[in-house]
Specification:
By secondary structure, this protein is α/β, with parallel strands linked by helices. The protein has a single domain, classed as Alpha/Beta hydrolase fold, catalytic domain (Rossmann fold, 3-Layer(aba) Sandwich). Helices cover 26% and strands 17% of the residues. It has twelve helices and eight strands. The chain has an eight-stranded mixed beta sheet, sandwiched between helices. Strand 7, helix 11 and strand 8 form a beta-alpha-beta unit. Helix 8 packs across helix 9. It is globular, with a radius of gyration of 20 Å. The two termini are 32 Å apart.
Length: 367
């Protein structure tokens, strides 16, 4: 994995209780984050009619583990690792291509469900627009689980601590507020921000550590996504931030099931990493790359800015175009909309942004 994948990550923020004046000390001070309560979730205007819903796993490998690696609960035995959890809804009368939604770093599939301030998320909205939707938890995250063996071996002093993965979870102020471009500095929003800052504390509760760590070369999510697309007899892979470039790697592994690729603010496009042969493969699949506003604002973190990442994707577009491919690179301000953050699936105009993506899929991807 390219190191830029993790520079662009998506850790949630824990802003403390918001005051009318939006003082940074109130936003970012220590305290108990308010839970999102049921009464804050807004009811839909009409019933959601499904043909089916459920969940399953993609991939996974059975491996032998010692009693110590299992947590000393019994003798040596086998466990499954590297499985990807998938939940889905198929609308009644589904008539459009399946869409697979993949979250960014330190998050889970919750990213695409009900927004922090209680509005409809992209998961349900795409289903209401007649797309079967499959939402994953990345391997090593949330319901996909992780392999605890390394940690237990270190605890038992069987392996050195340096062999543990570096667990990623960025902090609220810079890791989220400035990196997500909610505002130019912690606690200060952009005047035109589309992010519902009154619900920032609720976004913080979505954070989960990435238990695969930040330093892995071969990411098991890549093959899992290509396998899932094949199981679905064709799907659009919609990814965000850390997972943004995953469909490119998945297509290189096996592009047969990948009908289209949507990359929402990818952490990198790896424009100079892919070989000419790989670019030729990627040129066979329509691609949409979408960025929000305020790209030049400093992230507050080491590494590239979002403008740098946009420029990287511009370079990828040039290579794909030269290979005869179809890649559209778009920013929300180009559409006349200002203030969208990195978390545009949660922004106040999230359904307007979804409509841009849905229109592109209708235009570029056959059922």
């Amino acid at each position: 994995m390219n190191s830029m994948d993790y520079v662009a990550v998506c850790p949630p923020l824990r802003a403390a209780i918001l005051t009318a004046a939006l003082l940074p000390s109130a936003l970012l001070g220590a305290g108990v984050a308010a839970a999102q309560e049921l009464h804050e979730v807004r009811p839909a205007e009409g019933p959601l009619v499904l043909e089916s819903r459920g969940s399953f796993f993609v991939g996974g490998e059975q491996v032998e583990r010692t009693a110590v690696e299992l947590g000393s609960m019994g003798p040596d035995d086998r466990i499954t690792i590297d499985q990807m959890y998938v939940e889905y809804m198929v609308p009644d009368g589904a008539s459009k291509v399946a869409v697979v939604m993949v979250h960014g770093a330190t998050l889970s599939g919750k990213t695409y469900d009900t927004t922090p301030d209680g509005r409809m998320g992209w998961y349900e909205y795409f289903v209401r627009n007649r797309h079967p939707v499959y939402v994953v938890d990345q391997i090593g995250r949330a319901r996909s689980g992780f392999d605890q063996s390394t940690f237990n071996n270190v605890r038992a002093e069987l392996t050195p601590p340096g062999e543990q993965p570096n667990l990623l979870r960025l902090a609220d102020g810079f890791g989220s507020w400035t990196n997500f471009r909610i505002g130019p500095e912690p606690g200060k929003p952009f005047p035109d921000t589309q992010f519902p800052i009154e619900a920032a504390d609720k976004l913080s509760r979505q954070s989960v550590p990435d238990l695969l760590g930040t330093s892995r070369e071969d990411n098991p999510n890549w093959k899992a996504l290509s396998d899932l697309a094949l199981q679905l007899d064709g799907a659009v892979l919609l990814t965000h931030s850390q997972s943004g470039p995953y469909p490119l790697e998945s297509a290189i592994i096996d592009a047969q099931g990948i009908r289209g690729i949507v990359m929402v603010e990818p952490g990198t496009c790896n424009a100079q990493v892919h070989t000419d042969e790989e670019i030729a493969i990627l040129a066979q699949t329509p691609i949409l790359i979408l960025f929000g506003d305020h790209l030049s604002s400093p992230t507050g973190l080491p590494g590239p800015t979002w403008q740098d990442r946009f420029d990287d994707c511009t370079a990828l577009k040039q290579r794909i175009d030269a290979a005869g491919g179809d890649l559209r690179l778009l920013t929300t301000p180009e559409t006349g909309v200002r203030g969208n953050s990195h978390m545009m699936m949660m922004d106040r105009n999230n359904l307007q942004i979804a409509d841009l993506i849905l229109a592109w899929i209708d235009d570029k991807v056959a059922r």
